[in-house]
Amino acid sequence: MEWFEFPSVPCGGGAAGGGSFFHLSFRSGSRARGACARGAYAYISRTEEYDGPERDDAVYSESGHMPSWVGDDVREYWDAADLFERANGRLYLSADFALPRDLRPDDQVSLAHAFAQELTADQRLPYTLAIHAGHDRDGHEHNPHAHLMISERRNDGIDRSREQWFRRANSAFPERGGAPKSRAFHGRDWMEHARERCAELTNATLERCGREERVDHRSYERQGIDREPGEHFGPGAAHVVARGQNHDRLEAAATIADDQEALRTIEDQIARLEIAREGLMQEVSDRDERCHRVRRDRRRAQPGVAAARHRVRRGGRRAQRIQEHPRKGPGAPLPNGHADSAAARARSAVGPVTGRFAAAALAAAWWTAAAAQQSAFHAETRLVVLHATVKNNRGAEIAGLDREAFSVFENGRRQPITLFRHDDVPVSIGLLIDNSGSMRTLRARVEAAALAFVRASNPLDEAFVLNFADKAAIDVPMTTDTHTLEAGIARADSIGGTAMRDAVDIGERYLQVHASHDRRVLLIVTDGRDTPAR
Length: 534
What we know:
By secondary structure, the protein is of the alpha+beta class. The chain is built from 13 helices and 12 strands.
């Protein structure tokens, strides 16, 4: 068990956005998919290449149910799984789950430990648990979560060497075979039960700490909630984007998040406009009521003035009719001054009513225009990354070129180059090594050259090792771990024929399925003596 420095947070503290969020996902670390147990352990424990200030800290880690041959360094177990687990075996099962925010460190550790024991204690399955602080750039707790690696090899108490531990189990004579494998982690029912237990343990922790929030392992649809679910993407997707490459799942998740944020913004703006509109209409109504009371009070206080005003209004309307329809003779129109003053008095008399309608129309027009303006969507062009390699007429690469040496055109139009830099672009590599009998005398030189190639590669490069003689077989699946590649290169024997074409065919198909980089290479080390392939 290992503790790191963890800031103290009082139990029951509330976060601004609430601390209840449920996430639990499982992934299978199998050779067929290019998984590396030691690399996964380094990632969750923040060791080796993952120990850097740019990554979120691992604030706690523990391991349990380990066999007797594992010392103080738990990496020995996961390294041995990479080396000795069967070719078609599962190296580990990983679980990632969210922890409630603003809990005390010991409460988060207690919850994560309880769930790890829930999955491993009955069959004593070796495991490693690590908690990541989940702090944002400002150092605030944002997404605390735990990573759990589980081995399916049951610790039955029998002493075995690390090589024997990963062999096939022998039910008749257990001491002669490897550690038996658990068959528990299969099926939809097991997954549902695990998610339910995780939610129950989380809610029990929240209740014990006096928190009112609760989580639910069921989907929004099963809960009857009309809401678009978010999408979780793991570290692999984040690393792909960090290298300047596109990732479909990340793009889809970002689009959903952007749409949800835009809808929430529009709904908030509509709600504010509705409140403003109701306030304006209430103000107009209050003003109308006040004017009505003033006119009523004046009529009660001065009946004679009201009657005189009524006669003035009638005279004003008559003056307007005379001005609009002039007559000749005895019924000639009044002088201009008289008509204008009467019309002005008439207009002033009807002014308050007209003003009220104008204010209501202005409020409605402002609300409509503001809603239309606030609902507008804007689109912008994203940065397009182009990788380029320049060679001369002899095929040698030309280095040291600056920005001015390059031009980018789209549909015949020159595009500006916003960023320019020299990079060693990572590639996916297949090492196809000839282990036939004719290579026996050259084996030491081949091994040294292959090891030097692996050690000199870009740290982000990924590679697999395929050894071939009479038959071709992948000894090391796709990985970025140089130690695993070195072990796979060094453990082959030179014997048999040379099925080189079969090796190329298998390597090419494997590269198409498992490579994550756009640039892909097959490197074949052979003496060229190919025996008939299939």
